[in-house]
Amino acid sequence: MKTLGPEDIRFTRKEPNRLSAILSDGAVLEDVQIASLFPLRNPESILSVYQGTGSDRAEVGLVVEFESFSQEQQQMLRDYLAFSHFLPEIVEVMRIMHSAGVDEWNVVTDRGSKVFYLSDARNNIVVSDDGILLITDTDKCRYRITDYRRMRGRSQLLVERALP
Amino acid sequence: MERDRIPQKLKAILAGRLSSETLALALTSDLTPEGLFGCEWLIVTDVCLRVFNLEGGVGAQERLAIQFDALAEVELIALVGCSALELKTNAGVLNAIYFSDAKSAEFHQALYVIEKVRRGEGLTAEDIASPIRRCPKCSRPIPEHYSHCLYCHKRHGTLWRMLKFSKKHLSLLFGIFGLIMLSTVAGLISPQIVKVLIDSVFRADPVGSSVYPLRHWHLPLIGLLFLVYAIQQIFAGLQERVGGVVGFRTVYDLRAAIYSRLQELSMSFFDKHHTGAIMARVNQDTAEVQRLLVDFVPMTLEAICTLIGVGILLFVMSWQLTLFVTIPIVGTMLFLRWVLPMVKSYYRRYFHNRSRLSAFVNDSLSGIRVVKAFGQESREMARFDLRSSSYRDSGIELVRRWSLFHPVMFFMIMCGMITVWLVGGRLVFRNLMSIGAVVAYSQYMMMFYRPVFMLARMSESITSALSAADRVFDIIDTDPDVKEASNSVPLTALHGEIELKHVTFGYDRHKPVLRDISLKIAPQERIGLVGRSGVGKTTFINLVSRLYDVNEGSIEIDGIDVRKIRPSDFRQQIGIVLQNPFLFNGTIYDNIAYAKPEASRESIVRAAMAANAHDFIMSKPDAYDTEVGEGGGHLSQGEKQRISIARGILRSPAILILDEATSSVDLQTETQIFEALNQLMENRTTIAIAHRLSTLRHCHRLVVIEDGRIAEIGTHEALMEKRGKFYQLATAQTDLSKIMDV
């Protein structure tokens, strides 16, 4: 396992949402991609740095100490992760309307307000032991609630009513 | 695709820009470049690609404009939950527009359109038609696997449709309705008898107070009361009996319809839906429909009849009193409307915790061997305690709430009764109502509250059951992707020639797995498919066996397009041996005979012998009558594989597909299976997939697949000499097996 620290790799941003990297030996890696190994529970704990897609995907190494990078580098990586891993966090549930087997959810997320439709809650709402809810809407887009038990009163009540 | 939805302020800008250009495509994204929910417009003309931003209320702003001359490549980059349209220009690479998975199908089509426009090709109506179906009423998108708008779909349509399954029991349905009416009417008579008893029979002569002039009516009226109660119960019992019969028979028909449809549906349906979800629809959803038809519908009808009958009687008996009691009735209904959803949420939490505990115990005990091997008993206990205590706490919370609401609810009901005695009493004092009438009125009030409470509690159960019915009808309404053509050709004997002509296919039409595959396989030729995991080998054989239809191109069997061959004839001529053979619950004999139920016992034994299965079968105490268990759980992998091969031998197909038939067994068993396979492959066209390339030595030709295309074709020797892709794979495997040799 090749680990990468700030002394091994430095990330640069050429354009919004495109990263390059310079290794300690001076090699320049164009178009690197970053993926979190634990995107749901601990997105910044370990990151995979890789290039290419599909069968050409090659991992450059793993960032295991995210905090050891400078604030600027951390923010760059955070921005990239936010771009490449789209999983809106529902922070407030305004309304859930039940109608004919499909529920209309009107929510506020960390990416803005959204109205989506959910059918077959039994299969499209997954609850983990630690209270993480993953919701898949009728367009196959996913939303997350980190811990529905800690939501504000009305939001929690609405979510609990919608649980399968 | 969305050109008719271009907003006015953007149209105004485009009017100026497009004077010399022709609009080819207009499409919205649902994300901004910052990754927030928003909207940007992708506008493609015959010479240029533009992105406009309409946020901020300052009119449309052109964020990006790239001429096609400067564009080297356009690509869709798939991320997690989203994608980006990436442009490679002479100056560099940039992401033009960003969208969530909801827009994926449209942007894949947009990419196709952009490529066509760049090549200077004309666009057809199909090219620019949106892949997203929209509801004509509310314009909301209709999700991919649904036949109707989920939002506009009328629930009563579902109920009528369900009742149509009961059509053949029409006389019984009328009978049920009649029995409900009679039972209700009988129930309404008894308070009137009580009224007569109190007002007339138990009324003393005002002159001589010990004389009861109508005393002789006492016994007859009591007898009548008894009769009325008895008749009411008899009708209720008959209604329940007949209703149950109709309900169960209807659900039987519904279950048969859904199972029959499932047998007809293509593999693509089973790919898109979890097996568990499908099983839930067949088992649990039909059970809910059963409850709806057997319990809820009759109870609801009875409740409505009672409410109407009692309501009329209350009004006729005393409209003044009825006006007064309306207040507590309305209050009770409002209270129920407010409290029941709240109580239901506690019930949901309770049932949710219960199912989580049950799932955990099931999972943990199924894996008890792993728990003990890793010494994690105390950790499992802690996890159990966490869920069990949540279950306990939610149960306590439910009981606490219910113990609060319940008395309040009944208190409100009692307020209604108190109103009857308070106002009714005053009416008695003013000679506007008799005592018997007040008593009868109070009885009618209790009869009125019962269905109100029942309907309020049942409303969500009915909604849930109708949703279950919707899910059942979703399956019944699904059309199979692989259908029999109206002019299908019967085919009793196959020579086994297979030809793929420019075949392109993807499980998601916009993401092809196989691209432009052309290959001709002679009858009785043995072909080995080779390549890394995920290149499309299994997809290849899925297409040849017509589990899916191609997106482009064609597959011909003996010169006939496979889509024109009668599916049942074609299936008879194909035999498949899989890596993980599936055995049904039953005996070894049943599983071999599955390939040809009409085969004699002797031919089954011969097939088992040819598959090298006979010896191990005879080593079992029950021989061919041995129960294999669920999924063949009582047999080893090698034993299951040989039974699967025996099945194939019995079927004697013209075309044989082997999908990693030996990868799950040890070397010794593999030898036996090899011998059996050789027997099976005699005089048959065979397509075999195997990761261990040495097992494909018997093939006449090897086809190397890479990135969805045929990279190399040739004999084993020719490909090794060529030192291309096959050589790399073969030497890598040889090196690995040397390292693994201990």
Whole-number total of structural domains of chain A: 2
Low-confidence stretches of chain B: none
Cα shape of chain A: elongated
Number of strands of chain A: 11
Give the overall shape of chain B, derived from the CA principal axes: extended
Interface with most residues: A-B, 46 and 55 residues
Distance between the termini of chain B: 62 Å
Number of domains of chain B: 4
Give the integer mean of the pLDDT values of chain B: 85
Number of helices of chain B: 21
Tell me about the largest β-sheet of chain A. Answer: 5 strands, antiparallel
> What is the CATH superfamily of the largest domain in chain B?
ABC transporter type 1, transmembrane domain
Kindly report the spatial arrangement of strands forming the biggest sheet of chain A.
Answer: 1-2-3-4-5
Specify Rg of chain A, calculated over alpha carbons: 19 Å
**What is the multimeric organization of the chains shown?**
heterodimer
Reported for the largest beta sheet of chain B, the result is: 6 strands, mixed
Structural class of chain B: alpha+beta
Q: What does it look like?
A:
The complex is a heterodimer of chains A (164) and B (742). Chain A has a five-stranded antiparallel sheet. Chain A has 164 residues and is of the alpha+beta class. Chain A has helices at 71-84, 121-124, 153-162, and strands spanning 9-15, 18-23, 28-36, 47-51, 58-63, 90-99, 102-109, 112-119, 125-127, 133-136, 142-145. Helix content of chain A is 17%, strand content 43%. Chain A has two domains: 9-84; 90-162, no CATH class. With 742 residues, chain B is of the alpha+beta class. Chain B has four domains: 3-128, PH-domain like, CATH 2.30.29.30; 155-476, ABC transporter transmembrane region fold (Up-down Bundle), CATH 1.20.1560.10; 503-573 and 658-742, Rossmann fold; 584-652, 3-Layer(aba) Sandwich (Rossmann fold), CATH 3.40.50.300. In chain B, 55% of the residues lie in helices and 15% in strands. In chain B, the strands form four sheets. In chain B, strands 13-14-15-10-16-17 form a six-stranded mixed sheet, sandwiched between helices. In chain B, strands 1-2-3-4 form a four-stranded antiparallel sheet, with helices on one face. In chain B, strand 3 and strand 4 (61-67) form a beta hairpin. The longest helix of chain B has 53 residues, at 377-429. Chain B is extended. In chain B, 31% of the residues are buried. The model of chain B has no long low-confidence stretch (mean pLDDT 85). Classes of the chains: A alpha+beta (164), B alpha+beta (742). Chains A and B meet through helix 1, strand 7, strand 8 and helix 3 of A and strand 7, helix 8, helix 9, helix 11 and helix 12 of B.
